[in-house]
Amino acid sequence: MASGHTITIEQSQQHVRVTHGDLVLAESDRPLVLRETGSPVRYYIPAEDVRLDLLTPSGTHTVCPFKGTASYWSLPDAPDLVWAYPDPKADVARIKDHLCFYEVEVDAAG
């Protein structure tokens, strides 16, 4: 990692739920919590806990020097709402097969 830049990944038992309007897009009690220098806390949710049937792959790809190349998925009214790293760099290999959303509700009691 670059000097001063850190990424930590922790397994959590917190309950996270992702909604968009009336749609529940994901719900999980086993997210990974990723903390990265200069970024908000992100919850990476196992693919099995995500309603992939509601999402459409987009053509968008971005490259993070620390995590690798991200692929994105969209809803009809919310482009590139979800992303994942199908082939993450070794330091963050745990996020493979997990998806991340911009807006996530977290049950702090969990």
Automatic annotation (TrEMBL):
Residue ranges constituting the DUF427 domain according to the UniProt record: 16-103
One Pfam family per UniProt: NTP_transf_9
Source species, domain of life: Bacteria
Family matches, as PANTHER family: CONSERVED PROTEIN, DUF427 DOMAIN PROTEIN (AFU_ORTHOLOGUE AFUA_3G02220)
Name of the molecule in the record: DUF427 domain-containing protein
